[in-house]
């Protein structure tokens, strides 16, 4: 089990279990700390101590705002997928290169301090059909967020400056903002390149619709 400190530990902890059904456990959460949770027909499943949390639909019917009503609140969140899946926890920091997420449905849970903003890729229309989206979601703010991915997903892959990688377009989950799509290969694959600085790529072996 991996443990992450929320706001340096001042607001509690986030524990990630990578068992058959991945789970995220929020523990010792400070009163008034908020999280945004994906709300979908098929999940995720929430197990919370009665009376510890407020629940409210915000912005869109696909998100729930969870806010701790008391100190030391706890909650367990299970994966929303019935198939093999993985949850990856990332730490957004305002002084680092932001991540671009292909679809906001990949965000399972995020601290309230995290924002998602539409980002149009350079020459994005050229790749929109393959990627099945007209724009990416740029992650901004400071805090932890969890990405939920079906299939076998390795740890974020570090692409060093000047290096390239070829991946199936529908397997791409996210990439650092400094990564560039340079061309389409064989009609279904994309060649990605890190230009002036290193960046990360997140992908799965299972096409993500």
Summarize the amount of helix as a percent range. Answer: under 10%
Instruction: Give the H and E element order.
Output: EEEEEEEEEEEEHEEEEEEEE
How would you characterize the largest beta sheet? 6 strands, antiparallel
Task: Give the distance, in angstroms, between the N- and C-terminal Cα atoms.
Answer: 29 Å
Number of helices: 1
Work out the count of structural domains: 1
Tally the beta strands: 20
Which residues form runs of ≥5 with pLDDT under 50? none
Q: What gyration radius follows from the Cα positions, in whole Å?
A: 17 Å
Structural commentary:
By secondary structure, the protein is mainly beta. The chain has a single domain (1-151), classed as Double-stranded beta-helix. The protein has one helix and 20 strands. The chain has one helix at 124-131, and strands at 2-5, 13-17, 23-29, 34-38, 46-48, 53-57, 63-68, 73-78, 85-92, 99-101, 107-111, 115-119, 136-140, 143-150, 157-159, 164-168, 172-176, 179-185, 189-194, 199-203. A six-stranded antiparallel β-sheet has the order 6-7-4-11-14-9, with no helix packed on it. The protein has a six-stranded antiparallel β-sheet with strand order 12-13-10-17-20-15, with no helix packed on it. The longest helix has 8 residues, at 124-131. It is elongated. The model has no long low-confidence stretch (mean pLDDT 88).
């Amino acid at each position: 089990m991996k443990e992450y400190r929320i706001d340096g530990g001042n607001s509690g902890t986030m524990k990630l279990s990578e068992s058959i059904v991945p789970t995220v456990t929020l523990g010792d959460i400070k009163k008034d700390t908020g999280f945004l949770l994906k709300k979908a027909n098929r999940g995720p499943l929430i197990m919370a101590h009665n009376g510890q949390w407020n629940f409210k639909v915000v912005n869109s019917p696909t998100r729930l705002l969870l806010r701790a009503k008391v100190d030391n609140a706890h909650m367990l969140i299970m994966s929303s997928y019935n198939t093999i899946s993985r949850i990856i926890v990332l730490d957004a920091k305002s002084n680092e290169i932001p991540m671009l997420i292909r679809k906001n449905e990949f965000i399972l849970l995020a601290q309230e301090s995290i924002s998602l903003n539409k980002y149009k890729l350079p020459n994005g229309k050229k790749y929109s059909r393959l990627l099945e989206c007209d724009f990416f979601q740029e992650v901004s703010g400071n805090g932890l967020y969890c990405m939920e991915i079906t299939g076998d997903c390795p740890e974020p892959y570090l692409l060093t400056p000047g290096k390239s990688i070829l991946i199936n377009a529908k397997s791409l989950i996210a990439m650092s903002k400094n990564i560039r799509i340079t061309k389409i290969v064989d009609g279904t694959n994309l060649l990605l390149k890190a230009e002036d600085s290193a960046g990360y790529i997140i992908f799965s072996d299972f096409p993500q619709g």
